[in-house]
């Protein structure tokens, strides 16, 4: 299949890369009608995954604990989803286009999320039992953050959340925020939440 110049939507079902510390993945197309290239990347030994290209719109990634996933050179709107294992990731979204970060159940103080200059970036995660230490999140440039609560109440230290305009809370458990920047709007679902 020639995804490079195809006029149809391309799907890279699973790219498995073993033994590569650095993996560069360039997904582009010269065909203007090709609007989507979705990729699933399994690279459990990779510590640096660099995504580039004008057509990649989705990337589902499994990498090594502590890995950096860098999509800053992607020029289109991109959704990055990480695996649901207990790992810490540094994720960089497109420098210019909107990014969506899907963190599953593993977002905590070990992760660093950085978005670019777009004004519609989003991040979603499910939180469970985070405390003032594990809940000290590092999120920069993401305008909308959606947090779902399960199993146990959590505390979010928002001093490392920079550039957010909206935080949406879902679920039925307590979610306490501290050190929230001025001007952040909260939307509450079924959660009993507080901001301090």
What's the helix count?
0
Could you give a short account of the major beta sheet? 9 strands, parallel
- Which of globular, elongated, flat, extended, rod-shaped describes the shape? globular
What gap, in angstroms, lies between the N and C termini? 54 Å
Structural class: mainly beta
Number of strands: 19
Question: What do the pLDDT scores average to?
Answer: 87
Binned, the helix content reads under 10%
Strand order of the largest sheet: 1-3-5-7-9-11-13-16-18
What is the string of SSEs from the N terminus onward? EEEEEEEEEEEEEEEEEEE
The low-pLDDT segments are 190-196
Q: How large, in whole angstroms, is the Cα Rg? A: 17 Å
State which percent range the strand residues make up.
over 45%
Write structural notes for this entry.
The structure is a single chain. This protein has 196 residues and is mostly beta strands. It has no helices and 19 strands. It has strands at residues 10-16, 22-26, 37-43, 48-53, 56-63, 68-74, 78-82, 90-92, 99-102, 112-114, 122-127, 138-140, 144-149, 154-157, 161-162, 166-170, 175-178, 185-188, 193-195. The strands form three sheets. It has a nine-stranded parallel beta sheet with strand order 1-3-5-7-9-11-13-16-18, with no helix packed on it. It has a seven-stranded parallel beta sheet with strand order 2-4-6-8-10-12-15, with no helix packed on it. The radius of gyration is 17 Å and the shape is globular.
